[in-house]
Write a structure and sequence with these properties.
Layout lengths: L5 E8 L7 H19 L4 E7 L4 H10 L3 H18 L6 E4 L3 H15 L6 E11 L4 E3 L5 E3 L2 E3 L6 E11 L5 H10 L4 E2 L1 H12 L5 E2 L1 E2 L15 E2 L1 H11 L9 H6 L4 E5 L3 H14 L8 E4 L2 E3 L2 E2 L10 H8 L1 H11 L6 E3 L1 H31 L10 H22 L3 H22 L8 H22 L4 H10 L9 H4 L28
Parallel strand pairs: 1-2, 1-13, 2-3, 9-14, 13-14, 15-17
Antiparallel strand pairs: 4-5, 4-8, 6-7, 8-10, 11-12, 15-16
Helix pairs in contact: 2-3, 4-7, 5-6, 7-9, 10-11, 11-12, 11-14, 12-14, 12-15, 13-14, 13-15, 14-15, 15-16
The structure holds ligand ME8.
C-alpha cells in the first residue's frame, strides 16, 4: 500500500488525578479511527500521553503532600494502564517530563524566538489566570459573583502580575484566517469552525508564554527563572512524539504534519489558534485537521467530584469488559456532540447490538454448519436474494469507510447495525433450519450468512477488537485477510471446504438493573 501514513493523536491529559470516562472516551474514539486506518492498509502512528507541568500540578501535589513529580508518576501510570485495559492501540505514550520532550520544547521556543518578526519578547503580564483551565482570560470573558471572578468554564480566576515572555499572537490573525479559509476541513465539526473564525476575527492579543512564580516546567532557554507556560510545552508533544527536534528524522518526515488531532471541545482554541501560530512562527507545517468531540455527562448531570458521580473507567471495564464499554461510546454518542453515560444505556446497547444482533447471528449460523455439515463450510450457489444481502454488506463497508474518514464514528457504527438487522431478517426469512431436505440450499444460506458476519466482524475490529478477532477465528479467516479491502470485496470471501472450529459465544448478555 502506498497511501500516505496516518498520524493521529489524542490530547495529553493532566495527571493531577486519576482518569475518568471523559478521558476513556477520547482514547476509545481515537483508537477506533486509528484501527480503521490500519485496516485500510495505512501505516498509522497513534500517540497519547500525559501533560505533566503547570501550576495545577503544583497545587494539587501540595494539597496531597507529595511532589509534582510523584503526583505525575502516580497518575501518568494510571493513564497508561487505562490505555492497556481499554485495548487502545497507541504506538507511543508520551510524558512531557521526559528529556526528549524538554529538548523538543526548547527547540521550538528557540525557533519562535528566531523568527524574522521577533515573535517572542519580554514584558510584564498583568491579568487573570484560571489554574483549572491553565488559561489566561480577558476581563470581558469573566463573570462575577460574591466578589469572585470566574472563567467561562466555571473555574475561579486569580490576578497575576509577573515579568514574562510574550508570543506575538496578534501578528497571526490574518495568517490564521487564511489558513481556515484555504483548509475548510482544518476545524471540525463545522459549528466549531465558525466559532473559531469569529473569535479570531474579533482580534488576537499577544500571549504570555512563560511563568516566573514557580519552577515546575520546562526552563526557557537562556532565561533564568522562567519556565514555559504549560500550553507551549503541552502542544509541542505532538511533534516530540515523531522525533522533533530532529526534523530530518525518518519519523518526522514520515508523519508530520499530523493528519488528525482529536481533542475535547474545551481546548479547541489552544489547538486551532495557538498551535498553528506557534508552528508557523517556528517555520513548521501545521496539522491537517483538529476534531473536537463533545463532553460526557452521567445520567444527565455534569460529572463532578462534589456530586460524587465521577465514573471510574477501570470499574466499568471490570464489570462489562472492554468491548461493550468501547462499543457503547462509539455507537451512543454522536462524535462531536455531547453525550450521556448511563449503566442502563450501556447494557441495552451491548445486549441489543452485540449479543443479540451480532453474536446470535454468528452463533446460529455457525452452530448449524457444525450440526449439518460437520463444521465444514458448505459450497454456496447464491440466488438473487443471497446476492442482495452480500451487496448490501459490500456497500455498507463503503459507507462506513466514508464515515470513518470524516470521524463520523457513530454513523459508521449505525451502518454496522443496519447491516446486521438486514442480515438477521435475511436469515429469518430464508429459515435454513427448515431445509433439511434441501441441504444445498441450506448450505448456501449458511455460507452467505457467515460471509456477511465475516465482513461485519472485520469492520468491528476497529470498535470491539478482541471480540471481533474471536469471531474471525471462529470463521477461520487468516490474519492477512482481515482488511477493509477484503471486507468490501465482491463474491464470497470464505472458502468452501474449510473446517471451522466449534463456535463459542463471543458476547455476554447483561442483566438490566431493576428501576
Ligand atoms: O485539557 N467528556 O487535559 P485534561 C469528554 N492537558 N471529554 C473530556 C471530559 C468529559 N467530561 N473531560 C475532559 C487537558 N475531557 C490538557 C490537554 S493537549 C496538548 C493538552 C477531555 O486532562 C478534554 O477535552 O483536562 C481533553 O481533550 C482530554 O479529555 C484531556 O483533558
Amino acid at each position: 500500500m502506498t497511501a500516505k501514513p496516518f498520524y493521529v493523536t489524542t490530547a495529553i491529559s493532566y495527571p493531577n488525578g486519576a482518569p475518568h470516562i471523559g478521558h476513556a472516551y477520547e482514547m476509545i474514539a481515537t483508537d477506533a479511527i486509528a484501527r480503521w486506518k490500519r485496516l485500510e492498509g495505512r501505516e498509522v502512528f497513534f500517540l497519547t500521553g500525559t501533560d505533566e507541568h503547570g501550576i495545577k500540578m503544583v497545587q494539587t501535589a501540595a494539597r496531597e503532600g507529595v511532589t509534582p513529580r510523584e503526583l505525575a508518576d502516580r497518575n501518568s501510570a494510571e493513564f497508561k494502564r487505562l490505555a492497556g485495559v481499554l485495548e487502545i492501540s497507541n504506538d507511543d505514550f508520551i510524558r512531557t517530563t521526559e528529556p526528549r520532550h524538554h529538548a523538543a520544547s526548547q527547540d521550538i521556543w528557540k525557533r519562535m524566538a528566531a523568527s524574522s518578526n521577533g515573535d517572542i519578547f519580554q514584558s510584564t503580564y498583568k491579568g487573570w489566570y484560571s489554574v483549572r483551565d491553565e488559561a489566561y482570560f480577558d476581563e470581558a470573558e469573566l463573570t462575577e459573583k460574591d466578589g469572585k471572578r470566574f472563567a467561562p468554564s466555571g473555574a475561579e480566576v486569580e490576578w497575576v502580575e509577573e515579568p514574562t515572555y510574550f508570543f506575538r499572537l496578534s501578528a497571526y490573525q490574518q495568517k490564521l484566517l487564511d489558513l481556515y479559509e484555504a483548509n475548510p476541513d482544518f476545524i471540525a465539526p463545522r459549528e466549531r469552525r465558525n466559532e473559531i473564525i469569529s473569535f479570531v476575527k474579533g482580534g488576537l492579543q499577544d500571549l504570555s508564554i512563560s511563568r516566573t512564580t514557580f519552577d515546575w516546567g520546562i526552563p526557557v532557554p537562556g532565561a533564568d527563572g522562567h519556565v514555559m507556560y504549560v500550553w507551549v510545552d503541552a502542544l509541542t508533544n505532538y511533534i516530540t512524539g515523531v522525533g522533533f527536534p530532529d526534523d530530518k528524522s525518518e519519523a518526522f518526515r514520515t508523519f508530520w504534519p499530523a493528519d488528525l488531532h482529536v481533542i475535547g471541545k474545551d481546548i479547541i482554541r489552544f489547538h486551532t489558534v495557538y498551535w498553528p501560530a506557534f508552528l508557523m512562527s517556528a517555520g513548521l507545517e501545521v496539522p491537517h485537521r483538529v476534531f473536537a468531540h463533545g463532553f460526557l455527562t452521567v445520567d444527565g448531570q455534569k460529572m463532578s467530584k462534589s456530586l460524587g458521580n465521577v465514573i471510574d473507567p477501570f470499574a466499568l471495564v471490570e464489570e462489562f469488559g472492554a468491548d461493550p464499554v468501547r462499543y457503547f461510546f462509539l455507537r451512543e454518542v454522536s462524535f462531536g456532540q455531547d453525550g450521556d453515560y448511563s449503566n442502563e444505556k450501556l447494557i441495552n446497547r451491548s445486549n441489543a447490538d452485540l449479543a443479540n444482533n451480532f453474536g446470535n447471528l454468528a452463533q446460529r449460523s455457525l452452530s448449524m454448519i457444525q450440526k449439518n455439515f460437520g463444521g465444514v463450510l458448505p459450497e454456496a450457489a447464491p440466488a438473487d436474494v443471497d446476492l442482495a444481502i452480500l451487496t448490501l454488506a459490500r456497500e455498507t463497508i463503503g459507507r462506513m469507510t466514508v464515515a470513518m474518514d470524516q470521524q463520523l464514528v457513530h454513523e459508521a457504527t449505525a451502518e454496522f447495525v443496519t447491516l446486521l438487522n438486514a442480515a438477521n431478517l435475511y436469515f429469518a426469512e430464508q429459515a435454513p433450519w427448515g431445509l433439511k431436505a434441501d441441504l444445498a440450499r441450506m448450505g448456501t444460506i449458511l455460507t452467505v450468512t457467515a460471509d456477511v458476519v465475516r465482513r461485519a466482524a472485520i469492520a468491528a475490529l476497529a470498535f470491539v477488537p478482541a471480540s471481533a478477532a474471536k469471531m474471525l477465528d471462529a470463521l477461520a479467516v487468516p490474519e492477512a485477510e482481515r482488511t477493509i479491502e477484503r471486507a468490501g470485496a465482491e463474491g464470497i470471501g470464505l472458502v468452501a471446504g474449510t473446517q471451522l472450529p466449534v463456535p463459542q459465544p463471543v458476547f455476554r448478555k447483561f442483566e438490566v438493573p431493576k428501576a
